[in-house]
Amino acid sequence: MQYEAYSSHDGLRETFDAALQEQQNIVLQAGSLQNPARSFAESVCEGLQKQQRQLECRFLYDAKGSELYEKICSQPEYYLTRTETAILQRYAGEISRETGSCHLIELGSGSSVKTDYLISAYQAHYTNVCYTPIDISATALKLAGRAIIAKRPDVQVVGIHGTYNDSFQLLSCTSPAMVVFLGSTLGNFTEEEEHGFWQDISWHMQTGDYLLLGVDLVKDISILEAAYNDAAGVTAAFTKNYFARMNRELGSALDLDHIRHVAFFNSGKSRMEIYLEFTEAQAIHIESLQKTFAVAQGEMLQIEISRKFHLPAVKANLRSYGFEPVKTCTDDKGWFGLILFQKSS
Ligand code: AVI
Q1: Which of 71, 77, 97, 266 supports an S-S bond with 226, CB 3.0-4.6 Å?
Q2: What average pLDDT score do residues 160-184 get?
Q3: What does the pLDDT look like over 264-308, one tens digit per residue?
């Protein structure tokens, strides 16, 4: 599988369109990721200047972080992935019949393992299936793309190494399309970020296109908290890798033995909140920006939120952006929801 680095942001749409026409299997890199080290440094610096210090969770996913996230997905306490996979396995055929033939575009595709159930269902019913995975991890994209092509040589894969925003401009040349947004990644957005996200995507999607959204649902607190505090400590390693990455890439010189993973459910905000607590005072250096931030003993830096949803509220919210719910699928326990929407206006 070819990998074409540094497509400029402006040229991405044309390159993407040409790759589709020429039936190439390729990963294109969007211009926004051209200087990743600098934007990581700037993001950390900005987050540490806030009153409640907050780091951007997208930087959890470097090569090591993506590997740890895949491991989280198979932990016994982390029910999300296996529950959503089982729903997809059961309903992919019905979903594909409902939408008709369409270009599958997946936001935050990771390993694409779950999506394979969808691709397989579309292949069973339609010819010329085209899949566009979008991810910020080039490694994950290349590995997933190669695996799909090896297993399903008739499927065309045109991946985008970039952010969700980079991909929105491509939605005008993929219709009829189904945007696939799985794993309850929506839960990692604040309400404000979510609003901007739906506004943008709704603006770019064409009338009649589909959206398949996976959301984790509110349930017993003990189940939620266990999922983010697995006994094997994989989630703790995943969040601590953020600071290991800062040591590697920003020269932060942090002692990771004095940083502790803390995750709990905030019922008032219906979300898991994940922090790294400093058990001793330390200084965080950002070499490239010549900045140092003091962190007090006991201070907690928020690294991620994971909102949990109620299906009726999700549907009502999406309706306000022009998405009409056409099919809802859940597991027997009602722990996870997969909703198919159609863009109406
Ligand atoms: C990617 N996202 C949906 C995961 C979640 O459950 O919020 C990220 C994660 N963080 C800790 N464990 C999993």
Answers
A1: 77
A2: 92
A3: 999 999 999 999 999 999 999 999 999 999 999 999 999 999 999
Check residue 110 and give its pLDDT.
85
Q: Which of 54, 15, 45, 9 is nearest to 301 (CA)?
A: 54
Which neighbouring-strand residues pair with 327? 340
Q: Answer yes or no: is the C-beta of 160 below 6 A from any ligand 1 atom.
A: no
Instruction: Name the residue ranges covered by the structural domains of the chain.
Output: 2-34+81-219+310-343, 37-72+221-307
Distances (CA, A) of 31 to 8, 9, 160: 5, 5, 11
Longest dimension (CA), the chain: 60
Q: What is the pLDDT of residues 207-265, one digit of tens each?
A: 999 999 999 999 999 999 999 999 999 999 999 999 999 999 999 999 999 999 999 99
Q: Which residues pair with 28 in a beta bridge?
A: 4, 160
Distance CA 199, CA 318 (A): 10
Cβ of 304 below 6 Å from ligand 1: yes
- Residues 329 and 327: their CA atoms lie apart, in Å, by 7
- Is there an atom of ligand 1 within 6 Å of 83 CB? no
Of 304, 305, 336, 338, the one to substitute when testing ligand 1's pocket (max ligand atoms within 8 A of C-beta) is 304
- The C-alpha angle with vertex 22 and arms to 141 and 124, in degrees rounded to 5, equals 65
Q: What is the pLDDT, as a whole number, of residue 152?
A: 94
Cα dihedral 75, 80, 85, 87 in deg (nearest 10): 140
Task: Return the CATH superfamily for domain 2-34+81-219+310-343.
Answer: Vaccinia Virus protein VP39 (3.40.50.150)
Q: What span, in angstroms and rounded, lies between the C-alpha atoms of 243 and 222?
A: 27
> Among 135, 235, 306, which is best to mutate for testing ligand 1, by the most ligand atoms less than 8 A from CB?
306
| Mean pLDDT for the chain overall | 93
pTM equals 0.94
Q: Where are the alpha helices (DSSP H) in the chain?
A: 12-21, 36-48, 63-73, 79-99, 115-125, 138-151, 164-168, 191-204, 221-227, 234-245, 311-319
Q: Quick check: CB of 228 below 6 Å from ligand 1?
A: yes
CB of 109 within 6 A of ligand 1: the answer is no
